[in-house]
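Ticket #4471: structure export looks truncated?
Reporter: QA, pipeline team
Priority: medium

Steps to reproduce: submit the single chain below to the structure queue and open the exported record.
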Amino acid sequence: MAIKNGPPLHGINVIDLTTSYAGPTAAMYLADLGASVIKVERPGVGDDTRQWGPPFVDGTSAWFASANRNKKSIVLDLRSERGRTVLLDLIDSADVFLQNMNPAKLTRLGIDGATLLARNPRLIYCAMSGFGLDGPDSALPGYDLVAQARSGLMSVTGEAGRSPQRVSTALSDIVAGMSAAVAINASLVRQAQTGAGEIIDISLLDTDLALMAPRIAAFHAGEPEPAPSGGTDSVLAVYQRFEARDRSIVVAIGNDAMWQRFCDALGLKELAADPALGDNAGRRRARTRITDLVSEKLTTRTAAEWLRTFDEIDVPASLVQSLSEVVKDAHVVARGSIVSVPDSNGEMVTVRSPFRLASTPMRNERFPDLGENSREILLELGYSHSEIETLFVNQVSSEPVDHVRVSARDDREVP
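Actual output as written to the record:
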């Protein structure tokens, strides 16, 4: 990997054979950092998320658009020998390859990690799956819901006394994508230094177990087994949702000095003066008594009034915002955290990556149509126009039907 000017991953070539959400998210973050990402998709349908909806905007799934910016798309039929040959041509020239196929299918197609590193020893091979590359359940399909359930994440989520609940976003997928991006970037550093490749194993279950690390550690150390509690069982007290006069807010008391300021602001001087509540352990033991008194006080004023008060005394607090409020939040808007998808007339948005580099402006290229770049990519691989037309005719590859085709008379070889 030569050092070049531009974004950190400028000059890095990534082949993204993943579908659904975790893998595409990982590849998108690499693209955001400047990598050239080629998305390999199935004929006719492409990535599963192209069909996830509603909502659709002009036939495009909002879910798909949210995880596939800054990429190019090529269609390949991997059931055909010719399609697999093109894929191997792509991988031979790649720095990174991501896939989320069943391990048995990988071996059958000849794109398992050992085989590909034998062909391209400097390749960084990232396998993304529900349960990992080994273990008795490695062949099982995995989705966010399954990972949240099996990891115990659902067992601690929901209202007290009610059924366990899934965290209502693609949490496992998004964090798995972030984890993959971290591991790939670390491997790229070593690749640049030594030329060595890597096999990276990312699973949704491991991701959710990592999210549960503090709860698992606390349970193993003797804490009672947790259950849904409406978020009122944090290791910190007070650290939960309350009802103000007009709506819900959250308050996060992170240290003893903050506790004192909080009690003074609420007029709960007896709590502030109680030595038994002077540290977090004591407040946890008296959690019910404290929260009852705090709840009674907070209902006497509006959420806006309390937030002004807490801001003045440096106590972390927030409204529990709806999405209609989030997208208009002054801070979110000022930071440019939610951006319009190019050419969508503002009807589709995507969320900016959670990392920002002072040296690198955000990339915000539109998501690709299915097969939009098939011809361009094949030409760059050295295929002639006639060879490409043969691949299209035999449905090994394709491009959008309204895509402008090069004249059949222009059949020169690509130098």
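Status: closed, not a bug. The export was complete when the record was re-opened. Leaving a note from the reviewer for reference: The chain is about 40% helix and 15% strand.
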